[in-house]
Specification:
The protein is mainly α. About 50% of the residues lie in helices and about 0% in strands.
Length: about 120
């Protein structure tokens, strides 16, 4: 499984916070902070735009580290991803992601297939 696929199936490598972090790009951090502040109606500073990836050891965007209910749930169950969970297809936490993002759904489905083959 690709370590940059988040618990929910999103690809962290394509996230602008990740890109800004690995490239140490302060201009991108400013751009993302402004966009995410407007989109989320919250104050997000450029200093907060640091993340190596949801499942990778290291710095995380504060929302992802502390508030993401999907990440907290999967970690609490000791899952490598939501693809391991028998409730994946009916999960109210996961639905906003996989219900609107075909790539995330596909990533999770592939992980689920890999997991069920190993059983």
């Amino acid at each position: 499984m690709n370590d940059y696929i988040a618990y929910c199936g999103l690809n962290c490598e394509t996230c602008e916070a990740h890109i800004a972090t690995v490239n140490n790009d302060d201009e991108l951090r400013k751009k993302v902070a402004k966009e995410w502040s407007e989109m989320n109606h919250a104050e997000i500073t450029p200093e907060m735009i640091n993340c190596v990836g949801c499942r990778i050891e290291g710095v995380k965007f504060p929302y992802c580290k502390f508030m993401c209910s999907i990440r907290q749930c999967a970690m609490g169950k000791h899952y490598a991803s939501c693809g391991e969970c028998s409730e994946m297809n009916s999960c109210e936490k996961l639905e906003p992601i996989i219900g609107h993002n075909e790539e995330a759904r596909s990533n999770i489905s592939c992980i689920r297939e890999d997991y069920t083959e190993d059983e």
